[in-house]
Design a protein that fits this description.
This protein has 403 residues and is mainly β. It has two domains: 147 residues, Distorted Sandwich (Glucose Permease (Domain IIA)), CATH 2.70.70; 187 residues, no CATH class. 5% of the residues lie in helices and 36% in strands. β20 and β21 form a beta hairpin. 40% of the residues are buried.
Length: 403
């Protein structure tokens, strides 16, 4: 085994790990043992002691070395960038390719050391595809939940190994925009991990800087229910019948934007989303709010990606609204009217099945006395979005109903 020094250098991109052979270097550089190819480092028997621990309410991020001093930790924290988070739209802009992203894509250069973030047992490893190798670690106290580390190369564990927080797991590798993928997962009933699992909301476990509110698109789209037909953009046309309300949304801020990934717009999504429809008289005639922490994304053996069908019940294809590639804009186009609460929504977890696809704003319904529930006239739609750090945006739109 060779002893390799890891230097941390602050550039405009991030904390870059430079692997050097042993020799010179200042005394404050963390010394991390990277094993020779084909060999494994000793397994820990207890959690590592972090020189700069995170707060008691959080877990360390996987690139957080136990050897980081305060300056190195702060450099890492200042340079945290999530390319994608759980729940944002993924795909090529069309309906057939869309799916829901299952975790956090954490930007880092290939070869960055990756550490175990929580004690557990290695439940599954996959070494089959270069750039997509993965390790799933079950929680030590509940082996039906765990963390899935993806785009890990040269990992040093095998199935059944007990592992501890701070243990060297491997190094990152992805053949594209360099990053590693981290997902919070749980079993579907008593299935094996190979049979599929749920992806839960992970952001709450980590400490990162976010002081900027999400953004909503300037346009709000009114579409014929369960179709791709746009009835009106903002209030350019009156609407009638059963209507889906669609808005583009994304979160911004330091953690969602990186200067070296200029070709990808910030595309993470907030955690809470809601809307309210108000008549000209000031009466609230419809409202709903949704917390994405209550939702899980599913993957089964029959799916090549997470939440394909769920995505089609939550998103509209960006190509319907854009004349440029989706990744240059970054919005997830969410059907607000599919986020309405129903009597069946009380169970956890919530899965966006086909029952959500039929939810809509039916502007042509009548009250028991025969009067229209939504009389012809002008309506204000107020949309709000809130991220995991309680930054919030509120935006108002208008539309005319004419049945």
């Amino acid at each position: 085994m060779k002893n390799i020094k890891v230097k941390t250098i602050l550039t405009r991109t991030m904390l870059i790990f430079i692997l050097q052979s042993c020799g010179g270097g200042s005394s404050n550089e963390p010394s991390i043992e990277i094993p020779e190819s084909g060999t494994n480092p000793p397994l820990l028997t207890e959690p590592a002691l972090y020189k700069t621990p995170v707060g008691s309410n959080y877990l360390p991020l996987p690139q957080h070395s136990p050897e980081f001093d305060q300056n190195q930790y702060q450099t890492m924290r200042n340079e945290i960038y999530f390319i994608s988070n759980r729940g944002n739209y993924q795909g090529d802009g069309d309906k057939d390719s869309m799916y829901m992203h299952s975790g956090l894509d954490i930007y880092m250069v290939n070869g960055t050391p990756i550490y175990v973030i929580a004690d557990g047992i290695v439940g599954k490893t996959d070494r089959r595809t270069d750039g997509f190798k993965s390790v799933l670690i079950e929680d030590s106290l509940n082996q039906d939940s765990g963390w899935d580390y993806v785009h890990i190369d040269e990992f040093y564990v095998t199935e059944g190994d007990p592992v501890f927080q701070g243990q060297l797991l491997g190094v990152s590798k992805f053949n594209g925009t360099e990053h590693m993928h981290l997902a919070r997962v749980s079993r579907i009933e008593n299935n094996s991990w190979d049979q599929g699992y749920y992806a839960e909301y992970p952001d709450k476990y980590f400490d990162f800087i976010d002081q900027q509110a999400p953004v909503l698109s300037d346009e709000i789209y009114f579409m014929a229910n369960q179709t791709d037909t746009i009835l009106s953009i903002n209030d350019e046309n009156a609407i009638s019948g059963e209507v889906d309300i669609v808005v583009g949304i994304r979160d911004l801020g330091k953690y969602a934007t990186h200067p070296d990934v200029y070709y990808l717009a910030a595309r993470v999504i907030p955690v809470k989303l809601g809307f309210e429809i108000e008549s000209e008289a000031g009466d609230v005639v419809m409202s709903s709010q949704f917390d994405f922490q209550s939702m899980v994304i599913t993957k089964s053996n029959s799916q090549s990606s997470f939440g394909n069908e769920q995505a089609r019940n939550l998103y509209k294809s960006p190509n319907l609204f854009l004349n440029q590639p989706w990744y240059e804009i970054g919005n997830s186009y969410i059907v607000l009217t599919h986020l309405q609460k129903t009597s069946s929504d009380t169970s956890f977890p919530i899965i966006f099945d086909d029952s959500f696809d039929s939810l809509n704003w039916n502007t042509s319904t009548y009250n028991n006395d025969g009067s229209p529930q939504f009389p012809n006239g002008r309506y204000k739609i107020t949309v709000y979005a809130e991220d995991s750090r309680a930054n919030k945006v509120i935006k108002e739109y208008w539309v005319d109903v004419l049945n």
